[in-house]
Amino acid sequence: MRTVWLVAVVIGPLFGASWSAAGPATCPLGVAAIKLGVQGVASGPHADYGRQIEMGAQLAVEEINAAGGVLGCRLEMRFMDDENRPAVGVRNARFLVTEWGAHFLYGTDSSGVAMALGPVLRELDRIQFFTHAATHRLTEELVAQQKIKQIVRVSAPVYQDAVAAWLFRDRRDVRRWATIGADYEYGYATWAIFREQMRRLRPDVEFVGAAWAPFLTTDFSPHIAAVMATNPDGILATPWAGEAVTLLRQALLQGVFDRIKVWFQAMGGSVDVLEGISQEVREGRFQGKLYATSRYVHNWPNTETNRSFVSRFAKRWNRMPNYSAETTYSAVYITKAAVERARSLQTDRVIAALQGMRIETPAGLRVFRSEDHQFVYAVPAGKVVWDPRYPIPVLGELKVFDPKDYWRWPPFRPLELTK
Amino acid sequence: MNDLARRWATAGLLLALVLLPTVASRYVTYLVIHILLLALNAVGFNLLFGQTGLLSFGQAGFYAVGAYTCARILLAWPSLLPGVLGGTVAAALAALLLGFLSVRHTRIYFAMLTLAFGMMIFSLAWKWRAVTGGDDGLVGIPRAPLQLFGLVVALPTVERYYYVVLVAAVLAVALMHRVVHSPLGLALRAVRDSEVRAEHVGLNVRRLRLVAFTVAGAYAGLAGSLLPPLENTVTPPIAHWTASAEPVLATLLGGIRHFAGPLVGAFVLVVAKDVIVRFTVHWSLVLGAVVVALVLGFRGGLAGALEALTLRGARVRPVSAAAGEEGR
Q: Exposure winner among A2, A397, B90, B166, fewest CB in 10 A?
């Protein structure tokens, strides 16, 4: 009798667990749940970006499940740390698809990880919605040229940083530009695109200096000194995340903001950067000369969709949403729309359902560009200001430009990347 | 473990590895390829560390030289064998050159030199964009067919490629076993145990160290050159010093005094990490704790502990092998 009880105690919960895992058989797609594999950097100095990816995805999954799922199918999500290392990202993708059974993949912060994932996605035949990695090569080379159809990017690529040229085109007092650039593809591409746009808009502008800081630089003083020796009016800076905070603080210490007219911090509208320089902004130490953009800013657009998203996100996580949170959140909703339209989880059918998609998201209207599977949408640029309505600084005096003006458009010609 | 038991165990392991793709999932097969690559790197590293007494923190550099060379060859000439051989030879040449400069020193000075050279290779991978693709790396590397004696074997699946890696690994490990148990292996251990005595019996210490360094570099290069056809991509982080820690850790975990130590360590390290990352994003904390516990709990390494366990079960006295190491 004791043995029977023992068996019941051990086996019973297993049956219970398998029952609950299978769930009610109401999903018309023939699966117990639609599985979403998510990855981003969750360790090291950029870990907040991966955390934001996870929070954005989880919020969307919870909301969709609470509203009845996708065609009645429950969503199930699994997050993994890609450590910003391509080999780890590839291994995660293989695990998520072949072992865990992911139907769709999301995330990835690093361009290197994204480029490594591209060919593997073709082999696995799974769509990955990229929600942070910004290199233009992902969509221009791997999709438009090599026809890896499984790549879809929801976040704005490096094109977004060219918005600086449009932001300052009427500032006739800012003629001499220099860069403190990230010493890798992102920094080179940003500087190249910015110069290309600026030359077109303002032929009188000079590009007087450049200093390149490798990944994980902690002391920017030589880069700042080198650039300031060229006596620039404006500085375009591309180190991001914690490095951007360190760079800005060191620039303050070296009195840079007393000598320049504008500083454009490419991804300075990111929540982690704004949190990091909160005290300095509140004290006005940037003298109104610090400008930035992002791939989404939480105080724009002023729509019910965005306000509601920010409110729900802040309530759920006690943080403001970063761009990687919004892009991943939107990517899950884009998946929902595509699967509902395709009524299938098959890659070809879902991609067909994405064609011509125009979808309202917290960041505004996103439009699918079929040539390179890039969702196009506008993100404003503006001045970093303190607004008492928010717990952290925000971008103010926002200016919105049409992506048709400053994004790259097919047919693509190779970008000349020179230091 | 007596010789017969060891041979049975080896045969059983080989049989299991041969049958693996037929019984395991594609992901497990993929994971075992990574175990084999790390095992190759670690076996080479242990010739330098366990046998010769030189601790290198730059093996990732040679791994990367192998990977990038193979990738460039495959992009220009899609045939697997030239790619893998080219990568291995390039890594051996790089090791010969840097070894010539490094083996003049020992202990911490040698370790720091190898660390510096390894990071120089990392910087090259990061900066020399025309050749390496910079931080985005080289992408679209084909899993080229194996062309051998007029025979062309296509490798479209991970399972087929697994057998290429398995054959390469088995041959390389067998060759290393031969080296370790040869007079060269004895000479290397003599250098490790007493440099002065080795010189007094007429051994050219510096040359022997250079040979060990070059062979270790070639093994790292072989492992690296087998990576691009698997992943279709090569990026700079494979050259970073943190990647150099992997063969070191695998060897320490498995045991530096056992030939099988690096193989056991590679298995445990890859599997432990793969399991831990499934449960927590704080995997590094858990993995670190596991590694510390294993290193403190099994002083001679896991291979030694496994052997002791087997001996206790079989009540057999250890047989001192030609290497004079197993059973210590």
A: A2
